[in-house]
Design a protein that fits this description.
Elements: H1 5-13, H2 16-27, H3 33-50, H4 60-74
Helix pairs in contact: 1-2, 2-3
Protein name: PerC family transcriptional regulator
InterPro entries: Tscrpt_act_PerC/SfV_Orf40
Organism: Escherichia coli
Length: 85
């Protein structure tokens, strides 16, 4: 089993992309295929953890409700239909 203090610290902090890059550097230093396989698995796990969740669709109705609420608090909702001159 291969250990690298820097890569493991990066993983512990949640810096999975940096940890994956570090594991790539460590890969160049090991000698056996078993060690390379272990590092490959660690890199794949870091890559899997580093993916961002998909964003949901925009919901503009919530934004409109919040804006309407602020207008009401400011008394601007009573000015509907009036124009500035």
């Amino acid at each position: 089993m291969v250990h690298d203090r820097i890569a493991e610290e990066l993983e512990a902090k949640g810096f999975y992309r940096r940890a994956s890059a570090r594991w790539g550097e460590v890969m160049l230093l090991v000698e056996t295929d078993k060690e390379r396989e272990h590092i490959t698995m660690r890199r794949l796990e870091c890559c899997r953890k580093s993916t961002r969740p998909a964003l949901g669709p925009d919901n503009f109705s919530d934004i409109k409700k919040a804006a309407d609420r602020v207008y009401a608090e400011m008394g601007l909702d009573k000015l509907k239909g009036e124009t500035c001159q």
